[in-house]
C-alpha cells in the first residue's frame, strides 16, 4: 500500500470558493507527442475571503505562470502533485498559465487524451485539472472561449463547446478555430475534439421557432450508423419541450462518437461525447437492447442540458441532483417512446439485482453520500437508479401536474446556478404544500427498506386489514434507521377481478380499484371495508417504492395476480415470485432427491401464457408480447443470488436449469408453434416496440427449444444464425448455440469462427462476440476467458473490450467466475491490478464483484478475500481501487 493513504472528503466540510473565474480563455496547440495549453483566467476574490489561491492540477508540467501579464518567479508560487498555490494576489486579476501535457500517454482516459486517431476530452468529475490549473469544482462557473490549433490534414475537424466564431489557415499546414460558449458553466462540462471526422447533419426547429443545427460526428467508416441516434435526438428535443417545457439554448448541438471511453457518454455543453457503443446503430450490427439503450442515452445526455448544465450541482455530493433526476427523465421518455411496462420491468430488474446488492454491500451509500475518497467511485446505481426512483416517488406523491409546476419552479429559480438536492426538493414542497422532512431519509440513509405485509380478512365484518411493517438494516454509515415515507400503490383482487377500495369510513363514490397508501411508521395498519370476498392484494404496483417486500402468497394467489391484475408490472412480478418459490423448493429438495419436484402449477401458468401469446400472434391482437415473454422468463441467477445468503452458486444454477428444462420439455410444442408463427411473419425490419417484442419472444421460444435438446429446434437455430437479417436474431442464435450443450449442436467452434470472420472489422460487434464467450455458463469458462485476452479482437486499453471480457465474466457468468477452485478470483485479481496501472476508473468498476465476498460461503469467502488482499498489497494502487478494496476488507 502507499505510504500516505488517501483521505476522505466530507460534505459537512463544504466551503464556498474564495475566488470566482468570470471568464476562461483557453488555447490548445496539439502536436503528435504533446499538447500545450495556454489559459487566461479572469478572476476575482470573493468579498471578504482571505488566503492564497489554490488551483487544482494533476500530471501537468507547468511551463509558465503570470499575473496581469507579469511572469511570477518561482518564489511567488508553489506547485505540488495536486495543486498550484499563489499567495500574493490583487482582488481582481488575470492569471495566465501554460502547461504541457501528454494526451498520447493518457491511458486513464480522463482529461485530454487520444482515442485511436483523434483527440478528445473527458472532464467529469475531476478531469479538467489534468488539462490546466483551475478551480476544478462545479460551483465555479465561467464563460469559456476556446482556441484550438492543430495539423489540418490529420485533424480537419476541431470542436469545442458553444458556437464557432472564427476559423483560420496557419503556416505549416496547421489551422486554427475559435469557439465561444455564452453559457457560464463549470469546467467539468468543457469539451474539445480534434479528428478526421465526418458528420450526419440535420436541423431541429424549437418550439419558439429557432432553427438548431444538429451534427453527429464519427469516423468515415461509421457514417452509416448515425441515423438512429439522430432520430432519437430529435425525439428527445421535442419531448423535453412538451413534457418539461425545456427548449434548447444554442444554435448548434453536436455529438461525437469515440471508441475509447470510460463511461457511456458525457453531457458537455453543446458537444456531447459518446462511447461509440452508445450512439452507433444499424439493423445488421445492433441488437434491440442496444437500439433502446442508444435512444435512452442520447436522451439522457440531451436532457442534462437543463438538469445538470443550466442548473448544475454545487458539489459532487449533489451528484444525484442531476443524475437521479435525469435518469427519471430519460426513463419516462423511453416509456413514452416504447412499452411503458417493459421499460419499468427492465429498470426494476437492475434495481433488484444490482442496486440492492450495492445497498447491502461494503460500498453502500445514501443517494446523497456524506463522504468519498474518489468521486469517480460514486457514479453508482445508487446515485443514478435509486436516485431516479426517489424522484419517481416525488412524482407519484405529487401527481404529474404539480410535479411539472415544481420542475418549472426549480429550473426558473436556479437557472445558471450550482445548487443542492435541498433546492430541488424545496421547489417540489413549495408547489405542493407537502412537508418533505421525512421523505429526505431516502436521500440520507443507505440500504434497502424491507417491508413485510400481512392481510387479514374478516368475512363477517367484510373487512380486510393490511398490516405493514418496515425495517432497514444497518449500513456502514448508519446503524439506526428512521422510518421512510413509502408510497404503496395497491389494489385488491377478488376471484373475478378488482374489488373497490374503501379505506375505513371513506366510501368513495368513484369505487377506486387502485390506491396509493402512504406508509410512514415502522408498523401501520390500513383497514379496507365492504370487501365482499377474501381478496388477494396486488402490492407495490409499478414498483411504487424501491423496497424489498414480502407477503406470504400461495401459488394460487400468484396465479390470480398473473391472470387478473390491471398492473402489468405486478403480473410480471407475480410470475417471478411463482418461479422463485418453485426454484427454492427444488433447491431445498436437491440435497435429498436426484429428481426434485417441479410444481406443476408453474407449467400450467406458463402454458396459459403461451396460449395467450399464440392467440395474440395468430389474431394479431394487442396483447403485450414483450410482457408475456418476460413473464415466461425465469429470474436470473444474479437475482436469485441476491435473495438468499450464503449464495449457493451451483445450487441456484442447477435448480433454475431444472425448472427451465421441465418447462421447456413440457411445453416445447407450444414454443415451436409460437416460434414458427413469429418467424414466418414477413414484416419489414423495424425497431418499434411491437417488432422488438416479437423478436424477443421468438428468441425466447428458440432458446426453450434448444434447451429442451429438441433436434428440430437446434436446426431452426442454426438456420436463424445463417439467415438472420438483423443482429438481434443473429446474436441470439449464436448465444443459444454457444451456451447450450447437446448432441445436436455439436462443436460450436465453427459457428464462432464464421461469426468472427464475418464481423471482425466491426469492433462493436466483436464486443458482443467476446461477451457471448465470456458468459458461457461452464465451470471451465476461465480457460476461454484467458485465451480471449490474447485474441486479436481484444485490446487491453479499450474499456469496452475490458467490459466485454472481464466485466461479463465476473458479472454474467456465476458458474465460471465462482468456480470452487478460486482460479477465477485469482485470475481476476491479477487483471484488476494490471488494468489499474493504466486505467483506475475501469479497474475500480471491475473489482466490484469481488467485494461481495461476505455473501458467499466460508470457503469462497476465504479465496475471495485473498484476492482482494493481493490487490490491496500493490504498491502503487490508485485512489479509485484503494477506496473500493479498503472499504470491502
Ligand atoms: N455524466 C455522465 C456520465 C459520466 C460520469 C462520470 C464520468 O467520469 C467519472 C464520465 C461520464 C452521464 O451521466 O451521462
Ligand atoms: Zn447523467
Structure description:
- Its EC number is 3.4.11.2.
- InterPro entries: Aminopeptidase_N-like_N (IPR045357), Aminopeptidase_N-like_N_sf (IPR042097), PepN_Ig-like_sf (IPR038438), Peptidase_M1 (IPR001930), Peptidase_M1_dom (IPR014782), Peptidase_M1_pepN (IPR012779), Peptidase_M1_pepN_C (IPR024601), Peptidase_M1_pepN_C_sf (IPR037144).
- Residues 447-552 form the Peptidase M1 alanyl aminopeptidase Ig-like fold domain.
- GO terms for molecular function: alanyl aminopeptidase activity; metallopeptidase activity; zinc ion binding.
- Aminopeptidase N is involved in the degradation of intracellular peptides generated by protein breakdown during normal growth as well as in response to nutrient starvation.
- With 889 residues, the protein is α+β, with helices and mostly antiparallel strands.
- Among the domains are: 20-196, Immunoglobulin-like (Sandwich); 450-552, Immunoglobulin-like (Sandwich), CATH 2.60.40.
- The strands form 8 sheets. It has an 8-stranded mixed β-sheet, with no helix packed on it. A 5-stranded mixed β-sheet has the order 17-18-19-21-20, covered by helices on one side. It has a 5-stranded mixed β-sheet with strand order 29-31-26-25-33, with no helix packed on it.
- Helix 3 crosses helix 5 (381-398), helix 15 (668-680) packs antiparallel against helix 16 (689-707) and helix 16 (689-707) runs parallel beside helix 18.
- The longest helix has 23 residues, at 568-590.
- The protein is globular.
- The two termini are 14 Å apart.
- The structure holds O-methyl-L-tyrosine and zinc ion.
- The site of O-methyl-L-tyrosine has 14 residues, from strand 20 and helix 2.
Amino acid at each position: 500500500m502507499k505510504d500516505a493513504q488517501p483521505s476522505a472528503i466530507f460534505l459537512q466540510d463544504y466551503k464556498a470558493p474564495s475566488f470566482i473565474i468570470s471568464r476562461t480563455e483557453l488555447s490548445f496547440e496539439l502536436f503528435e507527442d504533446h499538447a500545450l495549453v495556454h489559459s487566461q483566467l479572469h478572476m476575482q476574490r470573493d468579498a471578504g475571503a482571505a488566503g492564497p489561491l489554490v488551483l487544482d492540477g494533476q500530471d501537468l508540467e507547468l511551463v509558465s505562470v503570470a499575473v496581469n501579464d507579469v511572469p511570477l518567479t518561482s518564489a511567488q508560487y508553489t506547485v505540488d502533485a495536486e495543486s498550484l498555490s499563489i499567495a500574493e494576489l490583487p482582488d481582481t486579476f488575470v492569471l495566465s498559465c501554460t502547461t504541457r501535457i501528454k494526451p498520447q500517454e493518457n491511458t486513464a482516459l480522463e482529461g485530454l487524451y487520444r482515442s485511436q486517431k483523434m483527440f478528445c476530452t473527458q472532464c467529469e468529475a475531476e478531469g479538467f485539472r489534468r488539462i490546466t490549473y483551475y478551480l476544478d469544482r462545479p460551483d465555479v462557473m465561467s464563460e469559456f472561449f476556446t482556441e484550438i490549433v492543430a495539423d489540418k490534414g490529420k485533424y480537419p475537424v476541431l470542436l469545442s463547446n458553444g458556437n464557432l466564431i472564427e476559423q483560420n489557415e496557419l503556416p505549416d499546414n496547421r489551422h486554427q478555430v475559435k469557439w465561444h460558449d455564452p453559457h457560464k458553466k463549470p469546467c467539468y462540462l468543457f469539451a474539445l475534439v480534434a479528428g478526421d471526422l465526418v458528420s450526419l447533419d440535420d436541423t431541429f426547429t424549437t418550439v419558439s421557432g429557432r432553427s438548431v443545427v444538429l451534427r453527429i460526428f464519427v469516423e468515415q467508416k461509421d457514417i452509416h450508423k448515425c441515423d438512429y441516434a439522430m432520430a432519437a435526438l430529435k425525439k428527445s428535443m421535442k419531448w423535453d419541450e412538451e413534457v418539461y417545457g425545456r427548449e434548447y439554448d444554442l444554435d448548434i448541438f453536436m455529438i461525437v462518437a469515440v471508441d475509447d471511453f470510460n463511461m457511456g457518454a458525457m453531457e458537455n455543453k453543446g458537444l456531447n461525447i459518446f462511447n461509440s457503443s452508445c450512439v452507433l446503430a444499424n439493423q445488421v450490427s445492433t441488437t434491440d437492447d442496444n437500439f433502446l439503450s442508444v435512444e435512452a442515452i442520447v436522451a439522457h445526455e440531451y436532457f442534462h442540458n437543463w438538469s445538470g448544465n443550466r442548473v448544475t450541482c454545487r458539489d459532487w455530493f449533489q451528484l444525484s441532483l442531476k443524475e437521479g433526476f435525469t435518469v427519471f427523465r430519460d426513463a419516462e421518455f423511453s416509456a413514452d417512446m416504447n412499452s411503458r411496462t417493459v421499460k419499468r420491468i427492465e429498470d426494476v430488474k437492475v434495481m433488484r439485482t444490482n442496486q440492492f446488492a450495492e445497498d447491502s454491500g461494503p460500498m453502500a451509500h445514501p443517494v446523497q453520500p456524506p463522504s468519498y475518497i474518489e468521486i469517480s467511485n460514486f457514479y453508482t446505481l445508487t446515485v443514478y437508479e435509486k436516485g431516479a426512483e426517489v424522484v419517481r416517488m416525488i412524482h407519484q406523491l405529487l401527481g404529474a401536474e404539480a410535479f411539472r409546476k415544481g420542475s418549472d419552479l426549480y429550473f426558473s429559480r436556479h437557472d445558471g446556478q450550482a445548487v443542492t438536492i435541498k433546492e430541488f426538493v424545496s421547489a417540489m414542497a413549495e408547489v405542493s404544500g407537502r412537508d418533505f422532512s421525512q421523505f429526505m431519509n431516502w436521500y440520507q440513509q443507505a440500504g434497502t427498506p424491507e417491508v413485510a405485509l400481512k392481510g387479514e380478512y374478516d368475512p363477517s365484518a367484510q373487512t380486510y386489514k393490511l398490516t405493514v411493517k418496515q425495517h432497514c438494516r444497518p449500513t456502514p454509515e448508519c446503524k439506526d434507521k428512521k422510518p421512510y415515507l413509502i408510497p404503496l400503490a395497491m389494489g385488491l383482487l377478488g376471484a373475478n377481478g378488482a374489488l373497490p377500495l374503501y379505506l375505513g369510513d371513506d366510501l368513495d363514490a368513484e369505487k377506486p380499484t387502485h390506491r396509493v397508501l402512504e406508509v410512514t411508521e415502522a408498523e401501520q395498519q390500513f383497514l379496507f371495508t365492504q370487501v365482499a370476498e377474501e381478496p388477494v392484494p396486488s402490492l407495490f404496483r409499478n414498483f411504487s417504492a424501491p423496497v424489498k417486500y414480502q407477503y406470504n402468497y400461495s401459488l394460487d394467489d400468484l396465479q390470480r395476480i398473473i391472470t387478473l391484475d390491471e398492473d402489468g408490472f405486478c403480473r410480471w412480478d407475480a410470475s417471478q415470485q411463482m418461479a422463485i418459490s418453485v426454484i427454492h423448493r427444488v433447491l431445498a429438495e436437491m440435497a435429498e432427491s436426484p429428481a426434485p419436484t417441479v410444481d406443476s402449477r408453474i407449467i400450467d401458468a406458463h402454458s396459459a401464457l403461451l396460449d395467450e401469446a399464440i392467440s395474440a400472434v395468430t389474431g394479431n391482437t394487442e396483447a403485450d408480447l414483450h410482457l408475456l415473454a418476460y413473464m415466461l422468463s425465469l429470474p436470473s441467477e444474479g437475482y436469485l443470488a441476491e435473495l438468499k445468503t450464503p449464495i449457493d452458486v451451483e445450487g441456484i444454477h442447477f435448480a433454475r436449469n431444472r425448472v427451465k428444462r421441465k418447462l421447456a420439455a413440457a411445453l416445447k410444442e407450444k414454443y415451436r408453434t409460437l416460434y414458427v408463427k413469429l418467424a414466418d411473419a414477413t414484416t419489414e425490419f423495424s425497431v418499434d416496440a411491437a417488432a422488438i417484442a416479437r423478436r424477443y419472444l421468438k428468441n425466447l421460444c428458440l432458446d426453450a427449444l434448444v434447451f429442451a435438446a429438441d433436434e428440430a429446434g437446434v436446426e431452426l437455430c442454426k438456420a436463424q444464425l445463417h439467415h438472420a437479417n438483423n443482429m438481434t436474431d443473429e446474436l441470439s442464435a449464436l448465444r443459444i448455440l454457444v451456451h447450450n450443450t447437446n448432441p445436436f449442436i455439436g462443436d460450436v467452434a465453427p459457428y464462432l469462427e464464421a461469426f468472427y470472420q464475418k464481423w471482425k472489422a466491426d469492433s462493436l460487434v466483436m464486443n458482443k462476440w467476446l461477451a457471448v464467450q465470456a458468459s458461457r455458463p461452464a465451470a471451465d469458462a476461465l480457460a476461454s476467458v484467458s485465451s480471449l485476452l490474447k485474441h486479436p479482437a481484444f485490446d487491453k486499453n479499450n474499456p469496452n473490450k475490458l467490459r466485454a471480457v472481464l466485466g461479463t465474466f465476473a458479472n454474467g457468468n456465476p458458474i465460471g467466475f465462482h468456480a470452487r477452485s478460486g482460479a477465477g478470483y485469482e485470475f481476476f485479481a491479477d487483471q484488476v491490478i494490471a488494468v489499474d496501472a493504466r486505467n483506475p476508473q475501469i479497474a475500480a468498476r471491475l473489482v466490484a464483484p469481488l467485494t461481495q465476498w461476505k455473501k458467499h460461503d466460508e470457503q469462497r469467502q476465504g479465496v475471495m478475500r485473498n484476492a482482494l488482499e493481493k490487490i490491496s498489497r500493490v504498491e502503487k494502487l490508485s485512489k479509485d481501487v484503494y477506496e473500493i478494496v479498503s472499504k470491502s476488507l
